[in-house]
Amino acid sequence: MTATPTQLRPTRRIALGQHMNELSLLAGIVVLYLVFASTANGFLGLYNQVNILRDAATIGIAAWAMTLIIISGEIDVSTGPMVAFISVVLAYMLQWGWPTVPSMALALVVGGALGGLAGVLRAHFDVPSFVATLGLWSVLRGASLFFTDALPVSIGRNDVVDALDRSVLGLPPAVLIMLVLFLVFWFVSKRTAFGRSIYAVGGNPQAAFLSGINVRRIRITVFVLGGLMAALSGVLLLSRLGSGNATAASGLEFDVIAAVVVGGTALSGGRGSMVGTLLGVLVITLIGNGLILLGINPFVQQVVRGVIIVAAVLANIYAIKRSQGRRG
After folding, report:
1. Upper half-sphere CA count for residue 42 (Cβ side, 13 Å)
2. Rounded CA gap, 183 and 256, in Å?
3. Were 85 and a residue from 140, 234, 305, 318 both cysteine, which residue would form a disulfide, CB within 3.0 to 4.6 Å?
4. Start-end of H helices in 149-172
């Protein structure tokens, strides 16, 4: 039986509603470009545009995994210290003369294992993910500062590390890596059983368990991915700075979470998209870059970010209630 136009209209309305957040973010990005182009000197310059992309990569690589974590109904606040800790660990390995590529691979494994530890605490011991990752945040930040005395750990000349910060087709490698990973995470979230399972766990973990989904494995895996992406950001940070730095990436976790939430991912879980997160990353990066060029006080910048996060959460709550009202 063929559906009538009247029957199709509600479905079309719901589909359009699902994309309203992305459309509003695109409009917001256009407005930000217009405002900062007319008020901030050098904003449209090529050098500044490359810097925007580089900063977006720092946030974006971690944000792809964070999107899956939040969709699954969890949270990870350890991203910033994880990035700094991995950069320090890798810097020391290179200082000791370890081969560069195996050292980088080991750094990624360490990041994934540390993320997995938080996942195990959540999945097997029922420790709230906020508490587990907050503890990890403290341990990693403290360890980094202790082992370095809060001083940079220089690695000297290293061709492989230098290559990771050498432009390719006019773009930093971190940007290309971010875009490739975006496609990978988009595919995983939209086209695989694993991605559908993440949405199911975030929407209703009990129902997901009864339907045969291994909820514990899903929770551990998303945190492993979070640690892995943070470790990759740490490797790229090392290539950018030329040293491991325990004080670097301070507050990165808040920018990452803000980008994901602004992108439309519900903190309650079960709802979100990679495309929305990509646009959220651009919004957060543009705001940060523009405020710096305008010479806005750094403390005021933190106020602006806080307002953005609260506004995004309120918009999410409104969207969810509106969606539930339509279903009713």
Report:
1. 11
2. 18
3. 140
4. 159-163
Express as a percent the part of the chain with pLDDT over 90.
79
Q: What is the DSSP string of 72-135?
A: TT-----HHHHHHHHHHHHHHHHHTT--HHHHHHHHHHHHHHHHHHHHHHHHHH---HHHHHHH
* Cα distance between residue 195 and residue 183, in whole Å: 13
pLDDT (0 to 100) of residue 197: 98
Query: Phi and psi at residue 172, in whole multiples of 5°?
Result: -65, 140
Do 285 and 307 contact (CB within 8 A), yes or no?
no
CA distance 89 to 95: 10
Residue pair 226/122 in contact (Cβ under 8 Å)? The answer is: no
Amino acid at 266: A
Q: Which candidate, 251, 267, 255, 257, places its Cα nearest to that of 315?
A: 267
Mean pLDDT, rounded, for 248-263: 93
pLDDT in the model for residue 284? 94
Q: How far is residue 262's CA from residue 310's CA, in Å, rounded to a whole number?
A: 9
Question: Which distant-in-sequence residues (6+ apart) come within 8 Å of 35 by Cβ?
Answer: 290
Distance of CA 267 to the CA centre of its chain: 14
Question: Which structure tokens are listed for 257?
Answer: 């979470």
What is the value of pTM for the model shown? Answer: 0.92
Angle at 193 between CA 188 and CA 195, to 5 degrees: 40
- Which residue reads 């940079």 in tokens? 152
Give the span between the Cα atoms of 149 and 146, in whole angstroms.
5
Tell me the per-residue pLDDT of 82-93, one tens digit each, with 9 for 90 and over.
999 999 999 999
Whole-angstrom Cα distance, residue 136 to residue 115?
Answer: 9
